[in-house]
């Protein structure tokens, strides 16, 4: 922004020309000619989106006046007559003066400065900017006369230009801010250059300034895991940066999908650049009761005063539970972060998985009536039935094997058990009872889930009789030892059976010998 140099030059001109050029009582049109030639005002932006579709209003605060001609020409300035009362009143407010202040006098006295760093509220030295206060006071004032017709910005990528008669202007962004771009703060811009003696020499020289708005960065969303079981708790992290200058509002709008519960009273952790934000600085709305996600209902987390956090990165964390409505959702549970216009910034998906197997006999026929349990470690898991599938129950503390929750699952007529709602991990499946009419040889195997439906695997330790076929996902029941499928399994079974018979015979012999000994002692 060239305002600082220009103001220094104007101050030098004030010393040279006295009060005549700065609105003193003796000044008149005869004292000098107002410069009417145009200057180009250029607005630069970091992103083309900051300028696209923007409209502005221009208010002339001061005219440049030429005295003399040719090499003898000198320039001064005076407050624009149409806006003098409002300009001087705004200066009085900005400078906290008890009396009216004339713009030329304030410039000559060096009372105006440059707010050069975002959010353009302070000088380079960190002091409060009087020029920023002046611009804000002008924007809030009544009666300021705008240039007519309103100038049209000519946008070329990340810069835009407008041509106006040389002078000092207030530019206001007349386009409301939105989810993508903030409204620019009021801008005071002056055309012209100064020489080494700090004298204004070229009043029509172009002026360049940042268009003082910001393109909002897109907010993002993350979830603690992409795979979860029904009943698991997920942690969601929302991240966004408050624009600088700050927008009118800064809101995270979250839309949980079917299968997610965000409970009333959920604890939120909110930080700004890594430091905790006090509870009083933000508001959570939409969680007066448990929110059962349906892809329609939303809740919000709103910064109460975004200006307090301008330029800072805000991170929000909260927990949600996968509920039993997640059962059967092919694409898992989703959670969306929305823009202010209701469109989606980001959709996060968390999936659960399952597995299945079929109980058969040696002839390959389905076997109903066999009973199984699924364990996570030593814990027997509980399931509920929906559409022919057993899904993990969200509440694992309820009593098992009632009308709605089952810890022991019985194979149906087709012999197949199908499970769902499980997260990553290794589970053990154990046959606890064979079907009626079958020998008491039971199958046992493990299932591993790793971001996909589970894979069955067996081992000699778990399945010594070879009843499990992981590739075919079958578990066999047999009616006789001879039907055992694995080589040597029948022999093992015979040895087991023989051991039982021999143990029985030994017991009988021992019993008879005891009775004989008793008889001899009678």
Automatic annotation (TrEMBL):
The record lists the membrane-crossing segments as 489-511
* UniProt keyword Cell inner membrane present: no
Q: Where is the signal peptide?
A: 1-29
- Listed Gene3D superfamilies: 2.60.40.740, Immunoglobulins
**What keyword terms does UniProt attach to this protein?**
Cell wall, Membrane, Peptidoglycan-anchor, Secreted, Signal, Transmembrane, Transmembrane helix
Q: Which residues form the Gram-positive cocci surface proteins LPxTG domain?
A: 479-515
Q: Looking at the record's lineage, which domain of life comes first?
A: Bacteria
Q: Which SUPFAM superfamilies match?
A: Cna protein B-type domain
* This protein's record includes keyword Thylakoid: no
Give residue ranges for domain SpaA-like prealbumin fold: 356-453
Q: What is this protein called?
A: Isopeptide-forming domain-containing fimbrial protein
Q: Which taxonomic lineage does the organism of this UniProt entry have?
A: Bacteria, Bacillati, Actinomycetota, Actinomycetes, Bifidobacteriales
């Amino acid at each position: 922004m060239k305002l600082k140099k220009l103001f220094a030059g104007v101050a030098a001109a004030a010393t040279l020309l006295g009060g005549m050029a700065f609105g003193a009582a003796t000044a008149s049109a005869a004292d000098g000619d107002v410069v009417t030639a145009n200057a180009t005002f250029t607005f630069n932006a970091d992103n083309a989106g900051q300028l696209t579709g923007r409209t502005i209003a221009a208010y002339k605060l001061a005219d440049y006046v030429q005295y003399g001609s040719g090499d003898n020409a000198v320039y001064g300035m005076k407050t624009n007559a149409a806006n003098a009362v409002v300009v001087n009143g705004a200066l009085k407010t900005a400078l906290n003066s008890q009396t009216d202040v004339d713009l030329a006098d304030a410039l000559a006295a060096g009372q105006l400065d440059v707010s050069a760093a975002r959010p353009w509220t302070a000088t380079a030295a960190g002091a409060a900017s009087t020029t920023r206060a002046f611009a804000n006071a002008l924007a809030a004032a009544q009666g300021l006369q705008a240039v007519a017709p309103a100038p049209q910005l000519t946008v070329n990528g990340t810069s835009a230009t407008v041509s106006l008669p040389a002078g000092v202007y207030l530019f206001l962004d007349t386009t409301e801010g939105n989810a993508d771009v903030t409204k620019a703060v009021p801008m005071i811009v002056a055309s012209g250059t100064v020489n080494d003696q700090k004298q204004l020499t070229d009043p029509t020289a172009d002026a360049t300034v940042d268009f003082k708005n910001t393109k909002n960065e897109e907010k993002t969303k993350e979830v603690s895991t992409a795979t979860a079981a029904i009943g698991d708790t997920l942690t969601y992290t929302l991240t966004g940066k408050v624009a600088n200058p700050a927008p009118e509002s800064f809101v995270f709008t979250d839309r949980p999908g079917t299968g997610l519960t965000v409970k009333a009273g959920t604890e939120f952790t909110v930080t700004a650049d890594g430091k905790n934000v006090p509870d009083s600085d933000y508001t959570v709305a939409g969680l007066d009761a448990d929110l059962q996600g349906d892809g329609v209902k939303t809740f919000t987390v709103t910064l109460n005063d975004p200006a307090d956090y301008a330029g800072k990165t805000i991170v929000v964390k909260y927990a949600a539970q996968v509920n039993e409505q997640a059962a059967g959702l092919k694409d898992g549970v989703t959670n969306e972060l929305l823009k202010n216009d209701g469109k989606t910034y980001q959709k996060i998906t968390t999936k659960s998985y399952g597995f299945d197997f079929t109980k058969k006999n040696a002839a390959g026929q389905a076997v109903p009536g066999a009973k199984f349990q699924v364990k996570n470690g030593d814990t027997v898991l509980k399931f509920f039935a929906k559409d022919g599938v057993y899904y993990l129950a969200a509440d694992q503390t309820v009593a098992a094997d009632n009308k709605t929750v089952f810890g022991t699952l019985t194979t149906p007529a087709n012999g197949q058990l199908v499970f769902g709602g499980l997260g990553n991990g290794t589970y053990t499946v154990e046959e606890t009872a064979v079907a009626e009419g079958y020998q008491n040889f039971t199958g046992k195997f493990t299932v591993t889930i790793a971001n996909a439906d589970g894979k069955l695997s067996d081992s000699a330790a778990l399945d010594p009789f070879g009843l499990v076929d992981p590739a075919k996902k079958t578990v066999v029941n047999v009616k006789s030892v001879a039907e055992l499928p694995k080589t040597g399994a029948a022999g093992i079974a015979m040895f087991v059976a023989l051991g039982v018979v021999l143990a029985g015979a030994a017991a009988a012999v021992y019993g008879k010998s005891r009775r004989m000994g008793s008889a001899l002692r009678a």
